[in-house]
Amino acid sequence: xxxxxxxxxxxxxxxxxxxxxxxxxxxxxxxxxxxxxxxxxxxxxxxxxxxxxxxxxxxxxxxxxxxxxxxxxxxxxxxxxxxxxxxxxxxxxxxxxxxxxxxxxxxxxxxxxxxxxxxxxxxxxxxxxxxxxxxxxxxxxxxxxxxxxxxxxxxxxxxxxxxxxxxxxxxxxxxxxxxxxxxxxxxxxxxxxxxxxxxxxxxxxxxxxxxxxxxxxxx
Length: 219
Fold this sequence. Notes:
three-stranded mixed sheet
């Protein structure tokens, strides 16, 4: 399914000549974080944020507050992952969509884009979730893939879920096999195992040995 099929245009942008009270009323009727605005010639200008709109004088025209417009948008050719990033960067739940000629086509809703993510194999396919950690200059995705596949695992998805100046965390979705052998191999390659959603035999073994040692010392 093409992402452009999710474009909604049931709410038209307000004209800059409209009153602030019109904008405030629209926000009161909807649950959107932003409302798109266009000039009298139909040119997209940007979007007003709900909190800002309720701070303005309702009797004045939108044109007096154009300085407060936020100018984010995506193209109808933008990939869904980049669209999702645009939602996150701009703290919005509505995303204006323009074509190559900057014509306003409509908007995406955040929930629709998230649903595409949830339907991807990363979430829909059966498998285990593994989070590994390594020095930011020491890891590589080719190495991560090699570790998984050398243990007959199928890598269904991977992304950098956390990063700082020293370390990077990578979240993996792995199918076709249990995680235990993969976890042991990651350890041999000096990766720290942050979490795994299947039993980690190494940790269980350490616990068993610790319990045995405690029993021995208490004899």
